[in-house]
Design brief:
Layout lengths: L1 H70 L4 E6 L4 E4 L1 H7 L3 H5 L12 H14 L3 E9 L5 E13 L2 E11 L1 H29 L3
């Protein structure tokens, strides 16, 4: 009986060792596979991160070049939503209006337009958005932060997304000197007509 028990005990020990060895091998293989899988995922994530960083860097460089082009163009440029709230104004726009960037970002475009011309200007842009006209050009005076009246020529392009208007991108030209010259010429012309009218009246009433 003791010999039989001893034999059975040895057989169980060998069986347990075999099972333990199989479990250890299975666990080791599973661990290696899991490690390889994890390493593969980490490599893919790292590659995606590098590609994303590279893409972000290119985008930042492109935006910087675009911004430098806008700032150095010597032309006033701004973008607004359909309500007329400013979304971007370049340095020339700040110099023209006398406002800071933070101040303009809290203002509506209509606050700069001379009150006597506001309705006419507003109608132009309402018509442009309603009819989805690609561009428009309009002349009107603005009032700077210091209360100075300046005439501008504004060219606006309608921005759309999936065929739906989203805002306006505008280029502004200061034409104050041109307008002053036109007004002076108009004044001279009116004086000439008045002078001619008076001369003609004198001649008509002279015996």
């Amino acid at each position: 009986i003791k010999l039989a028990e001893s034999r059975l005990l040895h057989e169980r020990i060998r069986s347990n060792e075999t099972v333990s060895s199989g479990v250890l091998k299975t666990g080791l293989i599973a661990g290696i596979i899991s490690l390889i899988f994890t390493v593969g995922i980490l490599l893919l994530l790292n590659r995606d991160m590098l590609l994303r960083k590279k893409a972000d860097k290119k985008l930042a460089e492109s935006e910087n070049k675009y911004r430098e082009l806008i700032e150095n163009s010597g032309v006033v440029m701004f973008t607004s939503d359909l309500k007329g709230d400013f979304k971007f104004v370049n340095q020339q726009g700040l110099e023209l209006t006398g406002y800071t960037a933070a101040e303009l970002m809290s203002l509506n475009f209509s606050t700069l337009v001379h009150p006597e011309h506001l309705e006419r200007v507003r109608d132009v842009y309402i018509e442009q958005v309603r009819e989805q006209q690609r561009s428009s050009i309009v002349e009107f005076p603005i009032i700077t932060r210091k209360g100075v009246k300046r005439w501008v020529e504004q060219s606006c392009t309608l921005q759309t997304k999936d065929g739906v208007p989203t805002g306006l991108q505008c280029f502004v030209k200061d034409i104050t000197q041109q307008k002053v010259a036109e007004f002076e010429l108009q004044k001279v012309e009116e004086q000439r007509r008045e002078y001619q009218y008076r001369i003609q009246a004198i001649l008509d009433n002279t015996p």
